[in-house]
Amino acid sequence: MRILLVEDEPTLRAQLREALMAAGYAVDEADNGRDAQYLGETEAFDAVVLDLGLPVVDGLTVLQRWRDAGRTVPVLILTARDNWNEKVAGIDAGADDYLTKPFHWEELLARLRALIRRAAGQASPVLRCGPLQLDTRSGRVAIDGQPVVLTSHEFKVLAYLMHRPGAVVSRTELTEHLYAQDFDRDSNTIEVFVGRLRKKLPPGLIETARGLGYRLAAP
Amino acid sequence: MTPGLRPGSLRLRLLGATLVTLALALTGAHVWLGGLFRDHVLRQFDSGLVQQLDQLTARLLLDAQGQPQIDPGRLSDPRWARPYSGLYWQLDALSADGQSRRGVLRSRSLWDAELRLSADALADGALHSHDSTGPQGEALRVVERSLQLAEQPQARWRLMVAADTREALAAVNDFNGVLAASLGALGLLLALAALAQVAVGLAPLRALQGALQRVREGRAPRLEGRFPVEVQPLIDDFNGVLDRNAQVVERARTQAGNLAHALKTPLAVLENAARQSPDPTLAPLVTEQVALAHRHIHWHLARARAAATGRLPGQRTPLAPLLDGLLRVMDKLHAARALDIDGGDVPADWAFAGEEQDLQEMLGNLLDNACRSARTALRVRVQREGAQLHLAVDDDGPGIAPAQRAAVLQRGVRLDESQPGSGLGLAIVVELAALYGGALTLEDSDLGGLSARLTLPAAA
User: Which of B267, B326, B336 sits opposite A102 (nearest CB)?
Assistant: First the structure.
């Protein structure tokens, strides 16, 4: 899952980046509204963490411009502005959640997970597909209740597919959502991870739609 | 009494001065014109009598015995002959010693009465007029002249003509009546004109009153409309004060907000850094102290804002749109809990007599608390009783035991430390409600959880 982190305070941004990466997210950053708007309009993110008091263009305007342009990416506003009228303005501008500083990491991560899940149409924090079960809160994967040990990259590929059961996901889409912008992207590595996953999971769970991509299907 | 006619009101002063002046002027005009007419009528009357006297004087002859004679047959007016007709003449003889012999000759109309005039020293031929009483008690106007005849120079005569003034005075009275009616009608018209003038002249003041009312009720931030040049400077100054007041409040609020925002990001950085420290005692200490600092910021920010705006006149916040906005926020903030939120139906014209952000802070905190504790559902109900709004936020959560309710309304008390939140929500609601003369009470809800009931002043 790929997150756009927009925060102008460098120390807090670094802390947020570390924490998000530790939680398994690919993180792109912007420290002003103009860059944030550009990234949001040109790159594919699974969620955005958006500060409001930004240089150049303020966060609320960036959010409104994304929504006006039809970008539906889930946005969590993370700001020091905690008046209710500011929350109403944020939600009405198109935010999906609103968290005020100072915040607890657990709450920020829980809210991000829930946002991404809801955006994919998944209501429960535990995703299921046939015998396969993935707990988004703990990051544990199990088959018929038996834990499966996955590497972090294998987990990211599986989590992305499990958020979209039955849908064909192209390698390009997987690449876009699993790596940050400045990462050296090579879609062949995706094939490697999918191959390893297939060995650890029941056969037939990850189908290949030839020329299109992969699909997670319950047998 | 209409509102504009209270003692000391401009309307009463203007109307009073105008009407009193009008009454004095019209009464004066009546007296003056009536007097003029009466003088004119009496002069006419007297000149008629003088003519009669001249005619009689011309008819006065001495007979062979030296006795004066006036031949009644040669007098044209028939009233001389009709008894008590109201037109009389009489000739008195004046002797040298000043004694007079009354009624030497009389008109037939006098019958057997005679005119009694006080003694009068008259130059020869001079005319005198008197008011007297006739044979039937009627008021008479008498014109007399003293005569000496050439044939009898030693004898002096006093010839007088008298006429009843009733008819003439009746004409004067008629005229006075007509004059009074005309002046009365004129007075009425002028009074109406004065009323209209006062109404038109004071209309801008009524508009000003309306504008002030709108400001007081919070429907307008400043006095609106154009006013006459005499009043406009006052309006401009007043609006200037209102604007400056609003600016000061806004600046104070912005500065308090800026300070709070500026502090929060460093606090977040500090807390995160402490968590990564290898010293295991540092993180809890910093987390606790950061939370404390955050509570102070939150509490004083809310208080500073409320103190800046709580007592400003003329505030009005419509309830329905504000509640809708907060419910949209609750929908998103607590989306994971999939709560059934019943916002009820609030009439569009119900409004809170206070500042928007204060109501948002109170209602937002109550709704947020309810969303956190509700199991599946919460409900908002608003009722209006006279000048008060009763807001009730109910949830189906675990509720709060009656013994603990007083404690949670105090600053900084949190029953559930596992839940995020500053622990100031309810205390801030209590503080803000008190600023507006309202109150917050906690009760059992029929939904099974807590019912938070907030009473606030309603705006007109």
Answer: B267
For residue B159, give every residue at least 6 positions away whose Cβ sits within 8 Å of its Cβ, in sequence order, or none. B53, B56, B57, B60, B89, B90, B91, B144, B145, B146, B147
Record: contact B272-A96, CB cut-off 8 A: no
Structure confidence by residue, pLDDT tens digits, B148-185 = 888 887 788 889 999 999 888 899 999 999 999 999 99
Indicate the pTM of the whole model: 0.63
Which numeric CATH code is attached to A2-119? 3.40.50.2300
Order of strands across the sheet that contains A126-129: A126-129, A132-135, A140-143, A146-148
Look up the CATH number of domain A126-216: 1.10.10.10
Tell me whether B337 touches chain A (CB under 8 Å). no
What is the reported pLDDT for B418? Answer: 47
Q: B3-17, B120-134, B245-259, B339-353 — which one is most confidently predicted on average?
A: B339-353
**Which amino acid belongs to residue B209?**
Q
pLDDT at residue B311, rounded to an integer: 54
- B138 CB burial (10 A radius; 0-12, 13-18, 19+): middle
**H/E element holding B39?**
helix B10-59
Which of A69, A68, A22, A25 minimizes the C-alpha distance to A49?
A25
At the top level of CATH, the class of B60-164 is alpha beta
Q: Would you state the pLDDT for residue A65?
A: 95
| Residue B363: per-residue pLDDT | 94
- pLDDT beyond 50 at B60: yes
Interface size A-B, in CB pairs within 8 Å, comes to 85
All residues of chain A having their beta carbon less than 8 Å from the beta carbon of residue B333 are 87, 97-98
The complex scores an ipTM of 0.81
pLDDT < 70 positions in chain A: 182-185, 187, 219
Q: Which chain B residues contact residue A59 at CB under 8 A?
A: none
For residue A182, the model assigns a pLDDT of: 65
The CATH superfamily holding the domain B315-460 is: Histidine kinase-like ATPase, C-terminal domain (3.30.565.10)
Q: Does B19 touch chain A (CB under 8 A)?
A: no
- A88 contacts B267? CB cut-off 8 A: no
